[in-house]
Each structure stands twice: as C-alpha cells, then as structure tokens.
Write a structure and sequence with these properties.
Largest sheet: 31 strands, antiparallel
Structural class: mainly beta
Number of helices: 1
Oligomer: single chain
Mean pLDDT: 85
C-alpha cells in the first residue's frame, strides 16, 4: 500500500526518574492484521527485532480511521506495537495525524530495549517529546526496585513530574504473587526530575519502614540517576568508643570536575576534639592519584596509671595537646608502552592514631610492595614489561605500628617496634627474561636481582646469625647494611612418555655477590665482600592415575623429585633479610628454593615425594588430600636460630633444618553445595604439629550461614614473653529465628593467651560481636554489642553498641 504523505513516524518517549519509562509510536496506514511503515530508505538493515530502521509493526484485531484520527483495538489479545527494539501492549491505540498526539489505554504495558517494563492505564504523548501524561504509572527496574505514581507528566524536554509517588527497592509481592507492604519506601506528594539541573527534587517526602512513617522531610533532593557523581552529603557513619564517646562521621563529596573530587569527612566525638578526614582524587589521561589524610589537635587518651598505684584508670586523657595527623596516598600511571610507574606515601604521627579514632582501612595494598598489617610503606617504583621480559625498580621505607613489648599495667605505655631497626630499601631491582622459542627443547628463564638495605639501628637475631651478633651492650651500634647482586638461570623441559608418565628434567644455576657493612666491631669484622654460587640438576616425575567406580572418580597423583645441588655456602656474615618466614605447602615443597628470597638456600642431594588423592562424585562434590615430605643427605644446622627467651638454645622455625623436612598435609572437601572446607598442616618427625590452619563454611536454610576457622603455630618450643606462638579460633555467622528476624555473631578467641604468665583464664575473646538482625534481601539492619580486647589498643578493652544499616540501591553505613 502506498505510504500516506501526511504520516510521519516518530519515537514518542517519556523518561521518569531513572529513565525507565519510554514509549514509541508512529503513524499507521490502514490494515486489518499487520501493517508496516518506514521512513526514507536510509538503511534497510534489520535491527534485533527484525524491523528496518524507522519501521513500525502493528498487530491488532481492528484498525480504523476517522478523519485524521487512526485507531487500533484488540479483543482478547491486546494491541501489539513494535518500534526501535521496544514493545507496546494496550487495549486501544489512537494517533491524531493533525495534532501529532498518540494515546494508549486499557492495561498499557511497555518494554524498553533494556527490558524495563512500564505499566499505566492511560498514556498520552506527542512525537516531539515536549509533553506527555501517564495515569496510574508503575515500573519495575532491573535491580528489583519499583516506582509508582498516580500521574506522571513530562512538562518539557528537561522536566519530568510524578504526583503522589512511591518508590521502594523492596519486593511488593510475596512468593505467591500476593501484594505485601514493602520493608522500606519513600512516599512523596510530588517528585520532579530536572534534567538540566541533573537533580531529583521531592516535596513532602515520607520515609517508611514496614509501612510505618519514620522520617518526614518537607524538601529532599538527590542527584539525577544519570549523574555518576554529584556534590552533596553521603551516608553518615555513627559509632561508639569508650575513649571517644559517641562518634558521627559526616562525609561530604565535592565534585570539582569529571576527573577530580574531594571527600571532606569530619568525625565528631562527644568526649574529644573532632578528627578532620580529607581525601583528594584526580584521574589523569594515563593514571590516578589518591591522597587521603586526617588532622586533630588533642591530648592522648586511653588507659593510663595517673596516680602510680599500679592500676590503670580507664579512658582518661593525658599529656599535652598537640597536632596529630596521618597521610595515606598512592598513585599509579600506566601510559601506552611497556613502562608504568607509581608511588605510595603512608605515615602517621601517632602509633595508635588509627586504633583510637577508628580510621577505616588504613592498611591497603596500593603499590608494587605491601607493608603488611600494622606497617606503613612509602615507595616509588617503575616497571617495564613485555611478552618475554620484566624489570622493576623500587625504593621504599617502612613505619611500624606493631607492639614489640606490652606494658602489663598501662596499654598506653606499650613499646612499639623501632622504625630505625627497619631497613631503608634503595633500590630493589628484579628482572627476568625468556628467549623466544624453546632452548634444548625446554623453557629457559634468566633472572636477576639487586638490592641495597640500610639500617639506622642495630638488630641482632634473627637478622644476624650466631657468631656475628654483638656481645655486651648494643646501645648506639649502627645497623648492618647489606648490598646484594644475584643472577640465576633456570631451564626445564616436560616430556610425557607413551605410558603417561610425565618427566621434567631441570637445571638451576645461581650466583650471589654480597657487600656487608657496619658489622659489630667487637667481632673484629670490617666491610666484607662475599661471593657464592650453587648449581642444581634434577628431575620431576609424576604419574596421574584415575579409576571410575560408577558415578565416582578416584584420582591419584603421585609426584617425586630427585635433585642434586652443590653444598650450600651459608656464610654466617650474611644477614637474613628476606628468608625468615617459610610456608611449606604442596607447591613450595617441590621448589628448588623453598626459602623465599635469596639469603638462605639449600644444597646437597635430596628426594622429595608426595601424593594427592582426589575423589569426585555427584555434581561438583569432591574431597582431596595431599601428603608429602622431603629427605636430604644431611641436615643443615645453619637454619637453626636462637630461642628469643633462651639465647643458649636454638630451634627450627622453618622445618627444613633436619635431614627430613616436616610432613606437609593439605586437603579440601565439599561434600555438598552447602558445606566446604580446607586445611593445611606441617608435622615434624616426632608427630607434633608445627603449624596448622583449618576452615569450614556451612550454609543451611535459605540465608543461615557460619564459618569457623582455626590457626596454630607451635614452632617455638620455649614459653616466655618473647614467644610468638599463637592459637586462634574464629567464628562468624547468622541464624534466622523467625521470618526475617535473626541473630548475627562473630568472635575471635586467643587460646594461646591461656599459656602466658598472668593470663590463667580458659581462652580469651580478642574480639566479639552479637546482635539482633533483620534482613529481607533489600533492607538489612543490625543492632548489637561488640567488645574489642586487642592487645595493641592503647585504651585497653573497648565495648559498646553497634548499628549497621544497609538499604538496597541506597548503600549502607558501618559501625
């Protein structure tokens, strides 16, 4: 049928709040079942809905025309209209060709290209988007939120208006489809979205919880949902601490530009002066900088023995008022090309400032190197990476917030780790390179490393080994400085025999050059230059086996390694800087260098063997267990270190000093989709557990869950104040008791504390929380009591109420 020249198809759309409501209509030519109309033939490529651009598809029981008014109606099946990947259903559709006004009535339902559905009893729009009306408007967003209004009006291209509106992020129907009261909702007499101001304005807004009004605001506004960031107040964070009293942190975001903003977040406290927190963020074309800091002018506070009677008074202020501050900054730049660089800047004026003011997330991994918990790192670094090579150059310093000695009476007098005993690293260079293609049929890798370490203050064991530690007073002695250059060649080839056995011969060559300065003068040592090397050759053999028993698979993976190295040259003059902590597990047991770093290494012949057995059944259910150990020709006494509380005794913290290593036992299990766990332990030759860690997660019902974990260290055999053995049990979870009401709980118990002098109590809760919980998947509220007995706290144990509130689509607040 020829196209009517008076009919101009066009998109008719209304955007309300999040832009969820949209309608598309066009002019029609008469037809009885289905008609098509198209714009000028700019493109004939069909879209996802099968229609050419500008085309409209109408499916109706009857279509009629009365002058300039065209109408379509349906009977049992409503009228269907499709246009520009949108779908519109209605009992009746009309379009006035002269006025350019389209209307839809009777159970109107519209679906936009993103799948958002809009409902109304009546829609009226013009094709120029200058005006629009929706009666009994309702929509449901993709995130589950619902929006309803008696009327929705598009006043102009920039202004949308809802009258007698209700918004809720919660379900409005139960599982059977029956209406129910939403847990939280915002009801307003009028809601206006001004797209030019990029804001949503509310008049006479009422916030409801469970249908009960809890807050009334005559005027309320927030940024338009199309705005990624806008200046304004964020969700405040309430809190309580016995030292600070009641606290309220009120963050305000100031957006400077699309690539820059400030976060001004003062913390107001009832007992002490406020703490001003600031954060500046700036995004550049090839990088980002974040600078975060805080400042206050206040006296110290905590538990302190004011009268000297041996008993500390709780939560008192002492000392002089002074400036207290912190800085936590980082930046990373990644321009096009193989080079990238970055930095971190982390410092605080007080060792306990983060604890006393409850500063959030002060220990973050933002650079090439991480300072670890309770250590701050300031560094600058650069990296160069290609497909076959990698080079990094870095320099950094550390500030420690760890307690070295606890005061038995006054936590405020705890002695912290000396920053002068921590090294200044400048520089630290790491490099590796692999040639293109195989070498002698295998993979060849070259490594290089160089480092310079400088210390201000003297540190003895375990950095210095027996025979090089100073005798007598060490006051005023300088720290030992170390410079090292290392090179390493690693070659490995994998061959699989016809019988399925995997053979991996390998070769490892390594050379180190050390320059040691400021060794203790009482030993008659000067600046020392030490060269050493090691050559290792060996082979890994593995033979995976599988046996099927019905629906159950049993997999055995025996692995063995035979290696021969030159004797280790562990010169006692070389400080142990990077090899003090060893974690033996399934992967590290078969490494050529089982010590991290370069300062310690093993030599001589050795045999390592282990087997992993895995059972799989049903769908995704499995259990596995690995057991292995290593045997050397001789033991290595150089791996023994003096006991901190008994200098004449030595012990083996690594489990590698004997001719047989500790047994490594490691496994995981998931007997159902609701239970899973894993464990790891090292067991010495006498059968005693040296270290262990076990965790189990469980879920039952729809939302009940719990996690229990256990961690143990028994490497030090002598009990004393310097003994760093530990034993912890941690439990956390939630249990719903009635409907959406339940109990949330968590706790960490220090079982080792029962073995320390002056701590006879059976177990000790380091941290604990228990609270009442309400959660209906869109509104979570916790009210409870918490206690913090962390030894590092300068104010001693702290306890008090906590409140957590999380609203779906609105975010949440913490303690």
């Amino acid at each position: 049928m020829p196209r009517d020249p008076r009919v101009e198809p066009g998109a008719l759309r209304i955007r309300l709040l999040a832009g969820a409501a949209a309608v598309a209509m066009a002019a029609w030519s008469g037809a009885t079942q289905a008609q098509e109309a198209t714009n000028a033939p700019q493109s004939t490529t069909a879209g996802p809905d099968g229609l050419a651009p500008g085309a409209v598809y109408i499916d109706a029981e009857t279509v009629s025309r009365d002058g300039d008014v065209m109408s379509a109606s349906g009977g049992a099946q409503r009228v269907l209209a499709r246009f520009r990947n949108t779908t519109l259903h209605a009992g009746r559709l009309t379009y006035d060709l002269a006025a350019g006004v389209g209307t839809a009535d009777d159970r109107v339902e519209f679906v936009d290209p993103e799948g958002t559905v809009v409902f109304a009893s009546h829609l009226e729009l013009d094709p120029d988007l200058r005006a629009g009306v929706a009666v009994d408007f309702a929509t449901r967003f993709r995130n589950g939120a619902s929006l309803m209004a008696a009327t929705a009006v598009r006043r102009s291209e920039n202004v949308n208006e809802l009258n007698y509106a209700l918004f809720t992020p919660c379900p409005i129907c139960d599982a059977e489809g029956n209406p129910k009261e939403p847990s939280i909702a915002i009801q307003a007499e009028k809601v206006v979205q001004d797209e030019e101001l990029r804001a949503v304005l509310y008049r006479n807004a009422v916030f409801r919880v469970g249908g009960v009004p809890v807050l009334y605001l005559p005027w309320f506004a927030h940024p338009d949902p199309t705005v990624e960031r806008a200046s304004g107040f964020l969700v405040p964070s309430p809190g309580y601490d016995e030292g600070r009293g009641v606290s309220l942190e009120v963050p305000y975001l100031q957006v400077v530009s699309p690539s820059e903003d400030w976060l001004i977040s003062p913390q107001f406290n009832s007992h002490i002066a406020p703490l001003l927190n600031l954060q500046w963020r700036r995004r550049f074309a090839d990088g980002t900088v974040v600078l975060r800091g805080g400042y206050t002018y206040e006296r110290n506070f905590g538990d302190f023995d004011l009268d000297g009677d041996g008993d500390a008074e709780s939560n008192v202020t002492f000392g002089e008022r002074t400036s207290r501050s912190y800085l936590l900054g980082h930046g990373r730049f990644d321009p096009q090309g193989p080079w990238r660089w970055g930095f971190t800047a982390e410092r605080t004026s007080d060792k306990t400032l983060f604890d006393r003011y409850d500063v959030r997330d002060p220990y973050q991994d933002n650079g090439l190197y991480y300072g670890d918990q309770r250590r701050l790192i300031s560094q600058i670094y650069t990296e160069h990476q290609t497909d076959r090579s990698y080079v990094s150059v870095a320099a950094f310093t550390l500030q420690s917030l760890r307690v070295a000695s606890f005061d038995p009476v006054t936590p405020a007098l705890n002695v912290f780790e000396d920053d002068g005993a921590l090294p200044v690293v400048a520089p630290l260079i790491e490099a590796r390179w692999e040639p293109q293609g195989p070498v002698l049929g295998g993979r060849l890798r070259l490594r290089g490393s160089a480092v310079s370490l400088y210390r201000d203050n003297y540190v003895g064991s375990p950095v210095l080994r027996a025979g090089t530690t100073a005798t007598g007073s060490v006051s005023g002695l300088p720290g030992v400085d170390t410079r090292r250059i290392s090179t390493q060649l690693d070659w490995r080839r994998a061959v699989i025999s016809a019988g399925g056995v995997r053979w991996e011969p390998f070769l490892d060559l390594r050379a180190d050059l050390y320059s040691i300065g400021d060794l203790p003068p009482s030993l008659g040592l000067d600046d020392e230059v030490i060269a050493r090397g090691r050559a290792t050759a060996g082979i890994d053999v593995s033979y995976p086996l599988i046996r099927r028993f019905g629906a159950t698979d049993l997999i055995l993976e025996p692995t063995a390694q035979l290696s021969v190295s030159t004797d280790s040259d562990l010169d006692p003059r070389i400080p142990i800087e990077d090899s003090q902590t060893v974690e033996l597990d399934e992967s590290s047991l078969f490494r050529t260098d089982r010590f991290p770093g370069y300062d310690l290494y093993e030599g001589g012949p050795r045999i390592t063997a282990g087997v992993r057995s895995t059972m799989r059944w049903d769908e995704g259910r499995q259990a596995s267990l690995f057991v292995g150990r290593s045997i050397r020709a001789d033991g290595e006494p150089a791996f023994l270190v003096p006991v901190p509380d008994a200098a004449t005794q030595v012990y083996d913290p690594s489990g590698l000093a004997s001719d047989t290593t500790d047994w490594v036992v490691q496994g995981d299990f998931s007997p159902s989709d609701r239970i899973r766990g894993w464990g790891h332990a090292t067991i010495d030759s006498s059968g005693d557990v040296r270290r262990a860690e076990i965790a189990v997660d469980g879920r039952w019902g729809r939302r009940n869950l719990a996690t229990i974990s256990y961690i143990l260290d028994r490497s030090n055999p002598v009990v004393g104040p310097e003994n760093r053995n530990y034993e912890f049990v941690q439990l956390e979870g939630q249990q719903f008791v009635y409907g959406n009401w339940g109990v949330a709980f968590s706790g960490v118990a220090d079982l080792e504390r029962t073995r320390r002098p002056g701590q006879p109590d059976p177990g000790y809760l380091v941290r604990s929380e228990i609270g009442l919980l309400f959660d209906d998947d869109c509104f979570r509220f916790e009210l409870g009591w918490r206690r913090d007995n962390t030894s590092v706290r300068p104010s001693g144990p702290a306890e008090g109420p906590y409140v957590r509130l999380t609203l779906a689509t609105f975010g949440g607040t913490g303690y």
